[in-house]
């Protein structure tokens, strides 16, 4: 009888534990989603995949000459910014109607869409309604244009180019996102081809404007061509990107505070008030101004899963990423047809934090380098970043540089967090992105426009080097340095079909 009571009591305890599991460990019971990491893969810390190179990197010494060359600013390359139109235009007395655009994607994709929307309004002689930013499906961020960008500055800079309104007049208040989501509407343009021409807009959108006084274009990302555009339209797109789109004051001020703390570490713990007043640095302190590099570590779960590469997390990680791929993309990931070795040799695998750390060390950055980590959420968490931190102990990010009070206005808002990183990146001495993507492309273009140093990893070379397990540190270092000599910000003139936002010369720049 006692044994029965004991077993009954034990069974009850087990049942109670099972019932409490979802409360104690909710992430184990969360449906698979874009931002939900695999608990199995992230609880098992990934092993070092390049232990031999890591040992060499930790023991290596960088020469003063190498350091000097590495941090040397770019020389003048014979180009200067040119965003003003060469033709004097006056705004027409009457507009053809209102243009609405609905923009999806992350901050940088939306930024490019805003520039294109201004250009389309110019082409059609229409009044642009401040673009509507869709809720980000990955990070569930509902930040609006006015949450991110200084709308009054935007309108003022472009006032001589196009007419812009913050919201539709009452007669058109029915034209909302919800209105277009419920049925087919005559005022919605949903057939705009990718990289549509000027003529396409004149033939397909202008008649809608003339008939209804309004046209809503959705989807709109990448819906305007880069080639065969009038020069004044190209220059206008450049003007929007480099002059009209500035972040709201509290983003800029927080960014300034982070930049100053990176340049002057002694000020890191000084408190900035909730208005993010700019920190004032006296002349004496300026003499000790330090340099820093921004690393955009694009290593989230989406990137890892879509690449179909092996990242050293073992069987649990492989299964978690394979399941994620199947749920999110239903098998439409072509990379999954290739082996890890094939993908790496072609440069199609994102660099892990360990690998980007080895690249930085080979280029000449050392443990005294001030490194700012621009990232949202890293797949694998701190365990994945530990090797990078071991190589660069002076690595910082928003959380380490700013107090919780200072970060209150951006907490949990992916677009605002990305805006701060964008601002810090445009003010760094050197920028490097671990993998290609919208942030990489936008920053390459912005820093080319400013003539600032930007290192572009040679993905194919690095993939092949990391596959060679017999390579020692000196061989790796030499191969990396030689493979990146012409990938440090040298201006590249845009070719047909390439984006003016990544390659601003010659559309946004002139020969000096």
Automatic annotation (TrEMBL):
Membrane-topology descriptor: Single-pass membrane protein
One BP term from GO: fucose metabolic process
A GO molecular-function descriptor: glycosyltransferase activity
Signal sequence annotation: 1-35
Annotated keywords: Carbohydrate metabolism, Fucose metabolism, Glycoprotein, Glycosyltransferase, Membrane, Signal, Transferase, Transmembrane, Transmembrane helix
Subcellular location: Membrane
Pathway assigned to this chain's UniProt record: Glycan metabolism
Domain of life from the UniProt record: Eukaryota
Family statement: Belongs to the glycosyltransferase GT106 family.
Organism in which the protein naturally occurs: Ilex paraguariensis
GO cellular component: membrane
Protein known as: O-fucosyltransferase family protein
